[in-house]
Amino acid sequence: MAISLKESHACAEIAKLFYSYLPGSGASAWKGHVSFRTVAEKVGVGEFWQGGSKEPAVAALLERTLEQRRDCFEPLILEIVKAGLKYRSKNKNPITEQEIQTLNGLILQVGFKFPTLWDTDFLASLKTEMSERAAKLVEQELVVEKVETEKLSKLKEGLSKLREDFYSLQVQKDRQAAGLAFGKVLNQVFSLYNLAPREPFRVTGEQIDGSFELDNEVYLLEAKWEAKPLSVGPLMIFREKVAGKSTITRGVFIALNGCTSEALTALTTGKQPNFFIIDGYDFATVLEGMITLDRLLRAKIRRLAEEGQVFYSAREVLSS
User: Fold this and answer.
1) What is the per-residue pLDDT for 11?
2) Which side of the chain, N or C, has fewer Cβ within a 10 Å radius?
3) Which domain does 244 fall in, by range?
C-alpha cells in the first residue's frame, strides 16, 4: 500500500527527530549493541533497513514499514523511543518532553496515536533529571512511611490502654457497671479503626447497643457479657432487631463468653442469618494486636456471605 505525500513528509520529519536517538548500525560482534538496525530486526522489519546515511535510512525504514507492515509501525516507534531513552541518557543528552510532544504531532499526521507516548506520567518524567525524580519519589515514600508509623504507634498506644481497661473489668465485682464500662471500651476500639461507631440508641422502643460502618455498610451492634455461653433467646431477639430495620441491614453480636452449640444450630436451622458473632477470644486477639479489627470483621462477613456461618473464630482466620 503506497503511502501519501503527507505520510512520507511526516516520516522524513520523524527521521530527523530520531537522528540522535540511536546509532545507525554497528559491528555484529558487539555484544548488547543497540542500533536502528537491531531495533528493526527486533520488531520484525529488519529487511527494511537499507543502511548507509543514517537519516535517509531511518526515513526509508519508517516508510517501508508503513507501506508493507503497517501493523509493525507502533512497535517500531515505541522500541526506538525505549532504546533512545537509554542511549541518550547514557550520552548525557536525555530526551525531552518537547521532543516526545513533537513526535506525537508527527505521528498524528501519519494517522496514528500511541497512548504510551501520551501518558502524562511518562511525559512528566521527562521534565526533570532521573536523580531528581528518584529523590522526589524517595521523599514522598518517606512521608508516607512516617504517616503510617505514626498511625501504627497511635493504634498500639490506644490498644494498650483499652486492653488494660478491659482486663480490669473482668475482676470488677459490680457486673452491671462492668457491662456499661465495656460498652465504652467497645466504642473506643471501633473508633481506633475509624469505623464510625455510634453509641447506644433507641428505635421504636428497642434498645440498640450501637452501630458502626465498614466498607460503606452499616452494622447494628449488640453486646452481652454473661457468666455462661448464651442460649438461643438473645440471639433470636437480635436477629429480629436486624431484620426489622431493612433488607440491607446486617449485625454483629458480641458474646464475650460465647454461645452454646445448640444456640448456633438453632440460629441457622431453616433461617437465613443476618448477623455474625464475635466472642471473647476474638475480641482479645484484636486488643493484643494479633489481628486488626477490620480484617477480622471482613473475614467473618465473607464466611457469613459464602457459607451462612454465624461464627468464624479468629483462630481459624489467623491460621488461614
Assistant:
1) 94
2) N
3) 143-319
| Residue 33 and residue 26 in contact, taking contact as beta carbons nearer than 8 Å | yes
Question: Which residues, listed in sequence order, are joined to residue 210 by a DSSP beta bridge?
Answer: 221
Torsion angle of the four alpha carbons 107, 112, 113, 117, in this order, in degrees rounded to the nearest 10: -50
**pTM of the full structure:** 0.56
**Length of the chain, please?**
320
pLDDT for the residue 144? 80
Note whether 90 and 151 are same-domain residues.
no
Last residue of a domain, one of 127, 157, 192: 127
Distances (CA, A) of 12 to 60, 79, 112: 8, 18, 16
278/213 same-domain check: yes
Whether residues 94 and 154 share a domain: the answer is no
pLDDT of residue 128: 62
Cell representation of residue 101: 510532544
Q: What is the pLDDT of residue 190?
A: 94
Q: At what angle do helices 175-192 and 293-307 cross, to 10 degrees?
A: 90
Residues of the chain with pLDDT under 50: none
In-domain check, residue 135: no
At residue 95, what are phi and psi to the nearest 5 degrees?
Answer: -65, 140
Q: How far is CA 91 from CA 87, 98, 144, 300, in A?
A: 6, 19, 35, 58
Residues 298 and 156 placed together within one structural domain of the fold: yes
307 with 190, same domain: the answer is yes
